[in-house]
Each structure stands twice: as C-alpha cells, then as structure tokens.
C-alpha cells in the first residue's frame, strides 16, 4: 500500500488524505 503512495505523485497523496478525512 505504501508502495502505491510512493509511486503516486504528492498530489494524489493529498487527495487520499482528503478522502480519509472525509471518512473520519
């Protein structure tokens, strides 16, 4: 899973954080 975050650009990581924030 972490490998995907590393491969993806930082912008995608930010989007992931937003999704997590919405779920919580």
TrEMBL record:
This is Uncharacterized protein.
């Amino acid at each position: 899973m972490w490998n995907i975050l590393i491969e993806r650009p930082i912008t995608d990581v930010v989007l992931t954080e937003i999704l997590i924030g919405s779920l919580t």
